[in-house]
Amino acid sequence: VGGSNDPRGALIVLEGLDRSGKSSQSARLVSYLEGIGHSAELWRFPDRTTSVGQMISAYLSNKSQLDDHTIHLLFSANRWEKRSLMETKLMSGTTLIVDRYSYSGVAFSAAKGLDLHWCKAPEFGLPAPDLVLYLDIPPEKAAERGGYGGERYEQLEFQKKVAECYHALRDSSWKIIDACRPMEEIEKQLQSIVLDNILACKVGKPISQLWS
Ligand code: TMP
Ligand code: MG
Fold this sequence. Notes:
nucleotide-binding; globular; alpha/beta; Rossmann fold; Thymidylate_kinase
């Protein structure tokens, strides 16, 4: 880890409904950044490789049942267990492109009817993203895209509620991206927004904490 004057990486999060294109666009962004010589990594939440992540994965594929509050806290724990590595990477100059983060955590649980403030509480103190790219798509359109994969939550009526909850979480770090356009067009737009953001972080913008 370099000294405090070394440029840090940016924490950039992609959010959106299931089938909004986050995973494809995140992967393309990382290849683009690496191609022009930036240090960048693709991360995703839930991170299903940890033991907490395996519990989450079993729940999502309906192999286990958990109380709504319990699964909410597991999703949050799954971010906390990655926090120190996340901060180390950022401080050493690596930009992290993260496919889902705390906003998914809050939006999906609040869509079940859990209290919004209760949902936000366990996320307090995690590194706040420098930029949130929200891939905006009507729930009906997302549902048409090759269908859902059959995991829990991949249902139109539920996704409509998730979209409303996401809406309540928007703040100044968010950029709303029209995700109904052709993939290449979205890709180009994301590249330019992300480059600007990485440069802003390099010139000394400090890492803040949720929920700022
Ligand atoms: P994935 O399809 O991106 O792997 O995410 C799996 C599902 O988990 C997706 O429907 C969104 C949901 N989710 C939560 O409910 N809470 C969270 O904190 C995260 C990261 C995802
Ligand atoms: Mg999924």
